[in-house]
Write a structure and sequence with these properties.
Blueprint lengths: L1 E6 L2 E7 L6 E7 L10 H10 L10 E6 L6 E6 L3 E2 H7 L6 H20 L12 E3 L5 E3 L8 H4 L8 H16 L9 H12 L14 H5 L10 H20 L10 H5 L40 H6 L5 H14 L5 H17 L1 H4 L5 H6 L15 E2 L5 E2 L1 H4 L16 E2 L1 H7 L4 E2 L10 E2 L4 H7 L5 E2 L10 E2 L4 H8 L4 E4 L2 E6 L8 E9 L2 E12 L2 E10 L3 H4 L2 E9 L2 E7 L2 E2 L4 H6 L4 E4 H7 L5 E9 L1
Helix pairs in contact: 3-5, 5-8, 11-12
Subunit structure: Component of some E3 complex at least composed of sina, ebi and phyl. Interacts with eff.
Pathway: Protein modification; protein ubiquitination
GO biological process, one term: cell differentiation
Length: 607
């Protein structure tokens, strides 16, 4: 129909889909300068990564390859306006309610990207597309670049997008960019003048950033931005933009957190998108859109150093990166998403150092139980993860609510897991171990920080603590418990004819371990039953190294039970509920007892 835009590596046209009659944006990639052509493997990667569907993210309908490799097209939804061009022509600024509506839609899109492990890296108003279809589509330029990028931090992650959102937020309000630097140093000076010069107190690690060690910045008083924009936003609005424009990336607000901010629930409320004014689409008249904002950052020296050595992949990556460096409007949105999604998933351990290991590990948290999901990793049809234990109990995805009909393994995430160190599940109790997923189960089974509850049955003791404190607790707080030494002892339960629920407890020490012997009398299945259990004061792994034998004998009769001890973590009741213990009724108890006292021979043997 007409040409909308031309860049170094492609031309965008407004076209009509003959099948549906809809207007679409058609981008033809320029390939004549590429000797090797555009690798088909990269096309497959783009095709898969562009399946991120959201109402506030412009849709890539398909990728079309012509008869020759120089005819490659991206077919996308046509969106009438980019906000940068639109705001340049508006005579009046957006109302605060309209700003809230735009911000909500932007935040929903960014949150969706981050939930799907995609780092945009180039959020700016020229990459925000405003449609008459009642939604805004998100498609880092210097003016929107986070301070950690400007100061040449070797690692960065999702917070750089959230800083850009804060800059866009301010631009919506004052109708011009917040920080308009002419160079990276000028950008930093303007930023520091508005927000105050950072220091170690407000940004831990600031003094270690590469550019900070090379330069001396002027000292400005903290945050004079309120004088410029605070009166237009109100107290909660200024609080929100301050949280976006927080120097320390770890303290910067996330998109999910921002969506829950009180700014969006107080008067004036967000405007219904259907009530937004409309503007004619200039591209329909054959006019080209204005030149876009400057290009996105290429990723920095650290990013370039961390590229994979494989020459084939590097070649494909180079093609993608060259394409992304001049992607305008629709394509900047689409291919930048593709490139950064691929980098984040496939090369995450190359792009991030151990400093961000915790952030990577958090991607593996199960949305149901919040435990880490370890290989084999299962997902729903839309790619959302769930751990194996929870998968057995659910029929719909807890994230997107799609019906789960089969087990789908996520091999890419399994590969990614092999390069991550996961914290011990008992880190909240003081364990500082960082473990591979292969090491994690074994370590946690015997972790010295694992909290054990008091193993004494029939008591209201609320004590809990590490394994090495269990015996001291028993000796000091439960002094009635007898302790016997040796691998072969007699456990004597007195007054077994007492009515009601009764328990008898004794400790047996041998082979450098302590074992708790428990005999419980309780009513089950309408009659009195006795349950005899042996537990090791230790982990399941330690219990697996032993076998115990319980023997009742007398009157020329013998009853024997052999099994592996339980860990005190399992609890006596677990063994009773599963009948995984010596079980006998009152009739047998009377047959083996003398004068109401029952002796049980207990033998502990190593496996």
């Amino acid at each position: 129909m007409n040409r909308v835009e031309e860049g170094t590596y492609g031309v965008v046209y407004r076209a009509k889909d003959k099948r549906t009659g809809e207007t679409v944006a058609l981008k033809r990639l320029k390939m004549e300068k590429e000797k090797e052509g555009f690798p088909i493997t990269s096309l497959r990667e783009i095709s898969s990564l562009l399946k991120v569907k959201h109402e506030n993210i412009v849709t890539v309908r398909e990728i079309v390859v012509g008869s020759n490799m120089d005819k490659i097209y991206l077919v996308m939804d046509f969106v009438e306006h980019d906000l940068k061009s639109l705001m340049e022509t508006m005579k009046k600024p957006f109302l605060l309610g309209e700003v809230k509506t735009l911000m909500l839609q932007l935040l929903r899109a960014v949150a969706h990207l981050h939930d799907n492990w995609i780092l945009h890296r180039d959020l700016k108003t020229s990459n925000l597309l405003l449609s008459h279809k009642e939604y805004t589509s998100v498609v880092v330029t210097l003016w929107y670049r986070a301070p950690e990028l400007l100061l040449q931090a070797p690692q960065y992650s999702f917070p750089i997008d959230n800083w850009s959102v804060g800059c866009i937020f301010g631009e919506f309000v004052i109708m011009r960019p917040l920080f308009q630097g002419k160079s990276e140093i000028d950008q930093l000076n303007i930023m520091f003048k508005e927000l105050g010069t950072p220091n170690e107190k407000i940004w831990p690690g600031y003094s270690e950033l590469p550019l900070v060690n090379k330069m001396t910045f002027a000292e400005f008083p903290y945050n004079s931005l309120h004088n410029r924009i605070g009166h237009k936003l109100g107290k909660s609005g200024f609080d929100l933009i301050n949280r976006f424009l927080t120097y320390c990336p770890e303290r910067r607000i996330t998109a999910d957190e921002a969506l829950r901010h009180e700014f969006f629930t107080e008067s004036p409320l967000p405007v219904d998108p259907a009530l937004f004014p409309t503007w004619p689409a200039k591209s329909e008249g054959g006019q080209h859109r204005k030149a876009p904002s400057p290009k996105a950052p290429s990723g920095g020296k650290q990013f370039q150093r961390n590229q994979l050595d494989d020459s084939t992949f590097a070649s494909e990556e180079r093609h993608l990166r060259e394409l992304s460096s001049d992607l305008e409007l629709f394509d900047e949105l689409i291919v930048v998403f593709t490139l950064q999604g691929a980098s984040f998933i496939s090369q995450s351990m190359d792009l991030f150092s151990k400093k961000s290991n915790a952030e990577l590990a958090s991607l593996f948290e199960c949305p149901v139980c919040f435990e880490y999901i370890l290989p084999p990793i299962l997902q729903c049809q839309n790619g959302h993860l769930v751990c194996q234990s929870c998968r057995k109990m659910i029929t719909t995805c807890p994230t997107c609510r799609v019906q789960i009909t089969t087990n789908i393994r996520n091999l890419q995430m399994e590969k990614m897991a092999s390069g991550i160190f996961f914290p011990c599940k008992y880190s909240v109790h003081g364990c500082k171990s960082q473990l591979t997923y292969q090491e994690k189960p074994g370590h946690e089974d015997s972790c010295s920080h694992k909290p054990y509850i008091c193993p004494c049955p029939g008591t209201s003791c609320k004590w809990q603590g590490p394994i090495d404190q269990v015996m001291p607790h028993l000796m000091s707080q439960h002094k009635s418990i007898t302790t016997l030494e040796g691998e072969d002892i007699v456990f004597l339960a007195t007054d077994i004819n007492l009515s009601g629920a009764v328990d008898w407890v004794m400790i047996q020490s041998c082979f450098s371990h302590h074992f708790m012997l428990v005999l419980e009398k309780q009513e089950k299945y309408g009659r009195q039953q006795f349950y005899a259990v042996v537990q090791i004061i230790g982990s399941e792994m330690q219990a697996a190294n032993f076998i115990y034998r319980l023997e009742l004998s007398g009157h020329k009769r013998r009853l024997i039970w052999e099994a592996t001890p339980k860990s005190i973590l399992d609890g006596v009741q677990t063994a009773i509920n599963t009948n995984d213990c010596l079980v006998f009724d009152t009739t047998l108890a009377q047959r083996f007892s003398e004068n109401g006292n029952l002796g049980i021979n207990v033998t502990i043997c190593p496996m």
